[in-house]
């Protein structure tokens, strides 16, 4: 239960926060290509804010298993105009990047939070850059780039290893100077994890939360939901048709009062969290 925990520079509410996803990519598994044009990405981000997103997460690199990496220049060209426009419109913007240079330029353009799916392992300059900028940092569990991450989905003790590897990166982040209320943790669903790993992590949330930091969960439209909801021929449910299943997970997570969920469709998730909080409120 980490909802309501203040994180530096971010909104604090007595409920689970909703981070809306703005993928400025041609190839994300969940919404690839929909918002590649910067103007369309900005319009989409503004729409997510209207629907009640507490944060918008702008990313220019797909982390779909097997994806190739864009160059730094391409990533910058995708995200900077979108970060700048959304920040200028008053949004709290998170930059989803593994690159220190992209993080630094996005912060200058108005981002308040760095969402690094590599937890500082992809770019040796990332943790120092974030510390210097003084913004908050999402440290995700990660074992390697998309091209081969699923070959690293092997654990003798899943939760023990995820927690230990996260603790190592949290320690590195603190050693770099990312201190106090600037750290958020994410177990990285689908990143070097099989579907069964994802389910086991969800079944053992109290152990993940033992890290004692605000927790963010990115489950929306992930592949393990597609597999669970496969049709009679075993064809996985397409990504855009996994929103109801994603919402079921948000409802359960909101009941646990996790710090935040990262989702593609914002309004249903805000509604679900509002229902959960009303249910929690005592009469009188
Ligand atoms: N998943 C994706 C991208 N960025 N960031 C965090 N912190 N946690 C996640 O689980 C996560 C992420 C991949 O999903 P997408 O293609 O829907 O953005």
Query: Helical stretch count?
Result: 10
Main sheet specs: 8 strands, parallel
User: Segments where pLDDT lies below 50 for 5+ residues?
Assistant: none
- β-strand amount: 5-15%
Mean pLDDT: 95
Please write the string of helix (H) and strand (E) elements: EHEHEHEHEHEHHEHHEH
Structural class: alpha/beta
Q: What would the principal axes of the Cα set say about the shape?
A: globular
How large, in whole angstroms, is the Cα Rg? 17 Å
**Number of DSSP E strands:** 8
Query: Which strand order does the major sheet show?
Result: 6-5-4-3-2-1-8-7
Distance between the termini: 24 Å
Bound molecules: pterin-6-yl-methyl-monophosphate
Helical residue percent band = 40-55%
SSE layout:
Elements: E1 17-23, H1 38-50, E2 55-59, H2 72-88, E3 93-96, H3 100-108, E4 113-116, H4 126-133, E5 136-140, H5 158-176, E6 183-186, H6 195-203, H7 205-208, E7 216-217, H8 223-228, H9 243-256, E8 260-263, H10 266-280
Parallel strand pairs: 1-2, 1-8, 2-3, 3-4, 4-5, 5-6, 7-8
Pterin-6-yl-methyl-monophosphate (PMM) binds next to strand 1 and strand 5.
Write structural notes for this entry:
There is one protein chain. Helices cover 40% and strands 12% of the residues. The chain has 284 residues and is an alpha/beta fold. The chain has an 8-stranded parallel beta sheet. Bound molecules: pterin-6-yl-methyl-monophosphate. Pterin-6-yl-methyl-monophosphate (PMM) binds next to strand 1 and strand 5.
């Amino acid at each position: 239960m980490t909802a309501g925990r203040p994180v530096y520079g971010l909104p604090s509410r007595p409920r689970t926060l909703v981070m809306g996803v703005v993928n400025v990519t041609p190839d994300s598994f969940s919404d690839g290509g929909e918002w590649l044009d910067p103007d369309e990405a900005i319009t989409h981000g503004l729409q997510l804010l209207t629907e009640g997103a507490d944060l918008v997460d702008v990313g220019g690199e797909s982390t779909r298993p097997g994806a190739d990496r864009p160059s730094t220049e391409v990533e910058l060209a995708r995200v900077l105009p979108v970060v700048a426009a959304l920040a200028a419109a008053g949004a709290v913007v998170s930059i989803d990047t593994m690159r220190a240079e992209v993080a630094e330029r996005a912060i200058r353009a108005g981002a308040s939070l760095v969402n690094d799916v590599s937890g500082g392992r992809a770019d040796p300059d990332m943790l120092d850059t974030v510390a210097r900028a003084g913004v908050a940092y999402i440290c995700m569990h990660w074992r390697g780039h998309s091209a081969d991450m699923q070959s690293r989905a092997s654990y003798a003790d899943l939760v023990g290893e995820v927690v230990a590897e996260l603790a190592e990166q949290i320690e590195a982040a603190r050693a770099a100077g990312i201190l106090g209320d600037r750290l958020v943790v994410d177990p990285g669903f689908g990143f070097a994890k099989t579907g069964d790993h994802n389910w086991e992590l969800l079944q053992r949330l109290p152990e993940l939360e033992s890290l004692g930091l605000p927790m963010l969960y990115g489950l929306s439209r992930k592949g393990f939901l597609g597999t669970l909801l496969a049709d009679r021929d075993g064809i996985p449910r397409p990504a855009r048709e996994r929103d109801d299943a994603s919402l079921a997970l948000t409802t359960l997570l909101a009941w646990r009062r996790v710090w935040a969920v990262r989702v593609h469709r914002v309004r249903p998730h805000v509604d679900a969290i509002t229902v959960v909080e009303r249910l929690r409120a005592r009469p009188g």
